[in-house]
Amino acid sequence: MAEVEETLKRIQSQKGVQGIIIVNSEGIPVKTTLDNASTVQYAGLIHQLVMKARSTVRDIDPQNDLTFLRIRSKKNEIMIAPDKDYFLIVIQNPSD
Amino acid sequence: MFTDEALDSVSVQSQWRISQQSAQESRSCQTRAVHRAEAEVQAGSSSTCCTQTETQPQEELHLQDGLELPGLRDFLQRVEDPVVRELVRNARSHAFDEFQVNWEDHRQRVSCLHFLQHSSAQERGLHVTSVSWNCTGSVIACAYGRIDDGDWSTEMSCVCTWNLDRRSLNPKQADLVIHVPTAVTALCCHPEQPALIAGGLYSGEVLVWDTSRTQDPVLVQTGMSADSHREPVYTVAWVPLQKKGEFGVLSAGSAGRVLLWTVDLEEARFVLSAAYALVPQQLPHSSGSSSSFKARGSSTVGVTSLALSPWDPDTFLVGSEGGLLLRCSFSSQTPAAVPPEGQSVTLRAPAVFLFKPRSGPVHSIHCSPFHRNLFVSAGTDGLAHLHSLLQAPPLLSLRVSHSYVFQLQWSPSRPLVFAAATGQGEVQIFDLGRRSLRPAATIEGGTDQPATCLAFNHRNPHLLAVGRTDGSVGIWQLSHDLTEQGPRESSQLEQIANQVAE
Question: TM segments (chain B) (predicted)?
Fold first, then answer.
């Protein structure tokens, strides 16, 4: 488990990173650096969005698949790396 | 020969009768005395316990710490490099630098939506002394009275409410008019229940009206008791109490008293739960500044404005008639140096810190909803001062107008914007993010009638209500750039707040 913590620390130390959440395939957060309320909110909402994005990509071209999802908002950017078992959600404020 | 003979009578006892007499014997018996002993048993101590479920505001988060998470390490190894690459590239990218998206039509100008008047109040020439939006953001409540009255008056006045979301809105006729025996000097709507309004009167009474009752809207009132104010009440505010969901009413009057009332619904009365008195002798001395301010001859510090801090439930700020600006604490235990007048609660001295005094009554204080240390204050000197709670002199002073400033309020959506209602009739809106110190926008009333009060609508942050001395209330819709938050505003506010002198 120490390797997992090391990796998270490395990602957290990048410029402007505000938080990291790892969500399992059912949408339940397994690791987080944010407080509980925000984590639950992000996990629930983003899981649905990633599922929708993935099905959109595959509907257009069944041979294609979603590799990365980025949501840019006024205040920050949310990056999601999806996988079979887990999603990695990183929230970054690039202008920090 | 014949002689009289007397013979004794012979009696024959009746055998039968004797045999019928029952033999009689008497015997008695007695139980022995009953042994009795007395003993008492009493439970030594008792305790009561009650439980109550509380509403769960959010779901619980269970992180599976001890569980083996299969594949997590591999997943992270796979994913780490691409993610870090994207993060680094993002931090350096200029792709979105000046990119703005139009989700709605941008209003470029400030426009007047409604112009509300109450005819009977206007005929009598009453001024609007206070406006307040209710918690749903659709009803505006206006209090009428006089601001230039120095004398005791028995003029009837009223509190009017208009529901702006109704289609049948009539700007000339209020939806609900509550008649009040004296001028209303302060008004505040309940932050969670849309029907309750608290008001303070010129006579010193504090009332709560329930607008959902048709018969008699007065829910509770203090009446004229030993506990209540004797002088006009200038501010009322709803304060969250210890128990979640309950609110008490804090009232401050010009006799230097700040009183905290709780509403007792069963008996329909106010119960005084805490009382604070401000006395010149007990004011803290501001460190560093000159001690030229001495306690003047008056025996009380009349309170003209009060502000609660949304960040710290123990702090409240008080502005006085003499220009003093104080930070006070609800939990202070020092008793006040005031002769007791038969109150039910002992008076306490709440003042903790004195800011740099102003030259004239402080009419308005408001704490910033975006930064825990900042607040603005304004008074009759026409300046708006931006203070930090950490130091006595102000951080910034802005010239708002050449006459009095009656009320000042921070915008609920933009951290750097605040609006000021001035005695010249204009409402000046300042944006601290701009380089120049001139107002970002000015709302003119058309007439020279002073604007006495204003209130931002927290649900619809683009609405601003302004009350004037001609008895009219204007509802203004603000332009887009005054209501939409920019990306770096919080950090700019943080920078301003950190200019605290060392």
Answer: none
